[in-house]
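FAQ

Q: What does a record look like?
A: Structure on top, sequence underneath. For example:
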């Protein structure tokens, strides 16, 4: 099935070079893959995977290892962001 992975801010550096400008990449994943399974090949440091949304809905850290996606879902991830 196909989903879209979107990485924001400094996390875009973990996307393939051809997809960094758009900050997103289409992915073919298995229905049994969890969020953590999906992002593992990208080597995202755990401390930088801060805000995780599936179709705009927040996924808590303790649910990321068991939450699977469906066809057409959008997985969006932000690092911690400080402002002032």
């Amino acid at each position: 099935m196909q989903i879209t992975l979107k990485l924001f801010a400094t996390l875009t550096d973990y996307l393939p070079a051809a997809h960094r400008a758009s900050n997103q990449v289409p992915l073919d994943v298995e229905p049994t893959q969890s969020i953590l399974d999906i992002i593992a090949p990208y080597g995202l440091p755990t401390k930088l995977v801060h805000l995780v949304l599936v179709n705009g809905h927040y996924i808590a850290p303790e649910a990321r290892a068991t939450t699977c996606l469906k066809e057409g879902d959008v997985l969006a991830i932000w690092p911690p962001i400080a402002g002032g």
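Q: Is there anything notable about this one?
A: The chain is about 5% helix and 25% strand.
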